[in-house]
Design brief:
This protein is an alpha/beta fold and 380 residues long. 21% of the residues lie in helices and 19% in strands.
């Protein structure tokens, strides 16, 4: 029997691409088309994009056109913008050089500059682009996604794998694409993104997978779309990473952008055959937390597990493998059946597990609260 009172609506917020709307059996199916709602006669102003420069390979020069190693950071964000295709019909650009360093040298003081640069630009710009070295880009992107509610404003990280002086340098096109992505309305509501080698990915899950290849951010989690011939293709409607815990950082408003702030100290121990417990003893009293890059999906020698169960500091079991996850079921247990202070990282790799544990400790979370935060990425 037909229920005339039932209203059927799409759950997809992408209204522009929803072809039919069905309100009830008593109402005809109406096909939506581009002429149903005419655009306003007043042309929309171009989106305003803020570009924040931090350095990296994209801002580097090599010794000659064939050199793809041994280069050094030398270009400013202004230099890089002059090398990209014309964007005057796409957006209005403002830029700021926060720093100019190799991403291996990004520390907490530089993170603070990036954090403040993004926070202060959210209310005034329609999109934000951050040039960054690829070596630690995934860590900074994860940090920003975890500490700033970007709302609808896209924040796009971009870098390159070849210096600007190299034959077929990838930096100019990557930067051009990142600006186009940040200016596109389809990018709104997607949080922190990474644009590299024609691919659009989630900054929360992105990981560098190759030390040399242009296609270095080719990962399973967070592959959102592509940039092809000036067209931006997203595979899914706007959404942000599930389980991403937002931390509210508390800073003294009088701090200058150059002030260094310090998070609790967390180290990463990389497991291997014959991994000794002495390594744990070397760091247990010097750090506030430990992350293990375990063998497989949480495997460690029995004597290492037993020593870890004796510690009072939080310990996160992550993995050496690029893909996969650490389930709670693989964590060691004490004789009483407790995991004590050991936590499963879920899908997070060791470096992101370190950042998440630091943020938890900085917020004075208890072990059960830390476990709950990691449960968002299917750990805990």
């Amino acid at each position: 029997m037909v229920n005339d009172t039932v209203e059927i609506t799409t759950i997809c917020p992408d209204i522009e691409n929803s072809q039919f709307a069905l309100s009830s059996s008593a109402v005809d199916v109406v096909r939506l088309n581009n002429t149903a709602t005419p655009m306003g006669s007043v042309p929309r102003a171009l989106p305003r994009i803020k570009v924040l420069g931090t350095g990296g390979t994209i801002a580097s020069k090599g010794s000659d056109a064939s050199a793809t190693a041994g280069y050094h950071v030398d270009l400013t964000i202004q230099d890089m913008l002059t090398a990209i295709p014309d964007i005057s019909g796409i957006c209005e650009i403002e830029y700021e050089q926060l720093c100019n360093v190799d991403s291996k040298d990004i520390d907490e003081s530089v993170l603070f500059k990036i954090y403040k640069g993004v926070s202060e630009s959210l209310q005034s710009f329609d999109g934000i682009v951050i040039t960054h070295g690829t070596d630690t880009m995934s860590e900074t992107a994860f940090f920003i996604e975890s500490t700033i509610d970007t709302g609808e404003v896209p924040v796009v990280f971009v870098g390159s794998m070849r210096p600007s002086t190299s034959v077929s340098a990838d930096g100019p096109m990557n930067l051009y694409q990142a600006i186009c992505i940040a200016a596109d309305r389809k990018s709104r509501g997607r949080g922190v993104l990474v644009s590299l080698n024609d691919q659009i990915s989630s900054g929360y899950y992105i990981t560098k997978t190759n030390a040399n290849s242009l296609d270095t951010f080719n990962v399973r989690q967070g592959y959102l779309g592509n940039f092809v011939n000036n067209d931006i293709h997203y595979y899914y409607p706007p959404t942000k990473p599930l389980g991403c815990h937002k931390f509210k950082l508390k800073f003294d408003e009088s701090l200058s952008p150059t002030t260094t702030f310090c998070f609790p100290r967390v180290c990463i121990l990389y497991a291997h055959q014959t991994f000794p417990t002495e390594f744990i003893d070397m760091v247990a009293d010097k750090y506030d937390g430990i992350v293990f890059a375990t063998l497989g999906a949480g495997s460690l020698p029995d004597n290492v597990n037993q020593r870890a169960l004796q510690l009072e500091v939080p310990i996160v079991y992550s993995k050496r493998s690029m893909d996969g996850m650490i389930p709670v079921a693989n964590l060691p247990k004490s004789k009483e059946g407790s995991h004590n202070t050991i936590i499963a990282s879920g899908y997070l790799n060791p470096e992101k597990s370190r950042i998440l544990l630091q943020l938890c400790l900085a917020s004075n979370y208890t072990i059960p609260e830390i476990r709950h935060v990691f449960s968002g990425v299917y750990g805990g």
